[in-house]
Amino acid sequence: MDCSGTEAEYDPVQSKLLEEFMCIPNIDKAWIFKSGSGSQAMFVMSQANLLANKRRKFMLATHNSKESEESVKFQLSPFPIEMNGVSAFVPSPSGLKLLVVRNYENESLTQFEIWSSSQLEKEFHIPQKVHGSVYVDGWFEGISWNYDESHVAYVAEEPFRSKPTFNHMGYKKGDSLGDDCGSWKGQGDWEEDWGESYVGKRQPAMFVINVDSGEVQTIKGIPRSLSVGQVIWSPNNKGSAQYLVFVGWSGGKRKLGIKYCSNRPCAIYAIKFTDVSSSRSDESKNGENEAYPIYNLTKSISSGFSPRFSKDGKFLMFLSSKSAVDSGAHRATESLHRIEWPSDGNLPETTNIVDVIHVVKCAEDGCFPGLYSSRLLSDPWLSDEHTLVLCSFWRSCQVILAVNLLSGEVSRVSPSDSNHSWNILALDGDDIVAVCSSPVNVPEIKYGKKILNTYGKLSWQWLNISSPIFRCPEKVTSGLSSLRFKILEIPVSDVSENLSEGAKKPIEAIYVSSSKFKESRKCDPLVVVIHGGPHSLSPTGFSNSLAYLSSIGNSLLIVNYRGSLGFGEDALQSLPGKVGSQDVKDVLTSVDYAIGMGLADPSRITVLGGSHGGFLTTHLIGQAPDKFVAAVARNPVCNLASMVGISDIPDWCFFEAYGDLNHFTEAPSPDDLSRFHQMSPISHVSKVKTPTLFLLGTKDLRVPMSNGLQYMRALKEKGVQIKVLVFPNDNHPLDRPQTNFESFLNIGYWFKKYCKQ
């Protein structure tokens, strides 16, 4: 066992450099407000706060004006404003009000603030007996102003359910302890949660607050079997009923882990809303609204989420992960659909779902590879009222797309010749505010000006921002300036008649190097980086931690093997049933390709992966024991047979091992366990001799750390050099700031140690 994790190992110069990389801000969200001849923007940014071990949120305001045909000026406010203790903030549709939500960690209450342009207008404290913390998780999360800005709908934890109380006499009736120190609370019935990152979170429920009075209504009529989220308001048509439209997930027989898993069945629902504060009669003074029936608007499809109404209110758009739900893949190629919304507000029993974007099986070279977009902007529409703008993966890049709601035509909005990754932040009328980055370029704001091209079709001219929204430390800028990257197209090695056409197409790997691709220069050590999932993607965007590894003298080979998002459904579905084989071959093929191109020194190649990337990392050092001089596995899947009984996603083990869910059961058979073992890295452990660093999170429910510990102990038993870091308060992503810092500081030193010639 390697016990070299001493202070002498940590060079303060490299520690300081890593800290500077970790503190590069992310640009998370933006809103645009019209202001005279120009516009104003409000950017939400976040930055690692290493001392507090949290992400620091702050807001930056700008005044935007066009300087020239090639440039837009963003006049920044003198200083950003830190949003300390703020869980969410949402501007109203007019931009005249700002809702600020504060969830307090001690669960004493939730605070709502309504701000005008100059001052705090209202403040409301919502006690736990009404509801718990507001969901701001990005999935169940839904905070929506209605059209006249009198109410806000949102999703929060339901109130605490009553628990039994006991005293010296036995059971005590009533739920309140009061001042009775001779009583205590029992635990009551156990309730299942949604797994990874939702431990301790109560059932999501829907509420509406009146922003004038602060009165909160619980929306009745929704069964507890549904977990609700992503609520929006129906169009404000005069004389028609007002509805709340939302997504509902059914727990079924069991709530399987939902984080990173879009294969959980869900539907779009609607329920009528009536404001009890204005309609309360003498017989109804208890503040409770009537329980209206709920309508399932998407009965004929297994998945519907991210609902959005068209500008004219005639259509309801939504995304669907039906290919994931129907196949069992935890994420897959998505589709886009629309239904007509009745102008009179009378919802029919059944709705006609129209496909706008189909699931793409296999795209022609250079053509749209399918939709991979987990959520739409709150207002994604251009002024023509039938074109929406969204982000999606396109092979190894993230791009911005425009979709014609009526024809289904998809066009690329971000530059087609750009190999950077683009993310839309907000629309400024028909113009676009976006963020662009690459493995060697920090995120920067870009402004897309709508124009008509020579063929009369929509196009966008991308203008430079005259002043950057933030500046990096000199050492970071210097370290990045010498780096270059390119996307390698790599033919697959196992083409056969049994493969689908999409699975025969080349894969891609992102190559990052300081050598500027000159073969005459001696190769730097190569780090092979493997994403998890497996149905995920490593896009060409900026990563603070990987940029640090590049800046200290490593080249990177970031492999998007078959099964990754962004390459069509055929390629994605070719992997299940072949994990540990096809994906391993793809990574080895990529490494051999880089060696053959003179981009790597075969004697100085290391490998890094987490989750399924850790599964591949530990497979690779067993199946190719002489290929890698060092390895790092972050919360790795090492033994499917032991993982299946303790993971929050046991279905994942069955699907990836068999290629379908026909075998899924909570009680695996001996044959199942035998197959899981044969397909796991643990089956190759006897051949491993590569020094391996393990990074494990104690609170990981996805791949509980016993999986990594078992594999580590097997290596230790046979004398392989190992090192283990355990983070007691981290779950699967290992993304808390201090954890991320210590992890990559150790990764850098581990690779440096074993790459010395």
TrEMBL record:
GO molecular function annotation: omega peptidase activity
Cytoplasm in keyword set: yes
Residue intervals of the Acylamino-acid-releasing enzyme N-terminal domain: 11-476
Lineage top rank: taxon: Eukaryota
Keywords: Cytoplasm, Hydrolase
Pfam families: APEH_N, Peptidase_S9
Entry EC no(s): 3.4.19.1
Any one GO CC term of the record: cytoplasm
Peptidase S9 prolyl oligopeptidase catalytic domain: residues covered: 542-756
Enzyme kind, highest EC tier: hydrolase
Compartmental location: Cytoplasm
Reactions catalysed, as given in the entry: Cleavage of an N-acetyl or N-formyl amino acid from the N-terminus of a polypeptide
Keyword Metal-binding among record annotations: no
Quaternary data: Homotetramer.
Family named by the database record: Belongs to the peptidase S9C family.
PANTHER family attached to this UniProt entry: ACYLAMINO-ACID-RELEASING ENZYME, SERINE PEPTIDASE S9 FAMILY MEMBER
Name of protein: acylaminoacyl-peptidase
Native source species: Cardamine amara subsp. amara
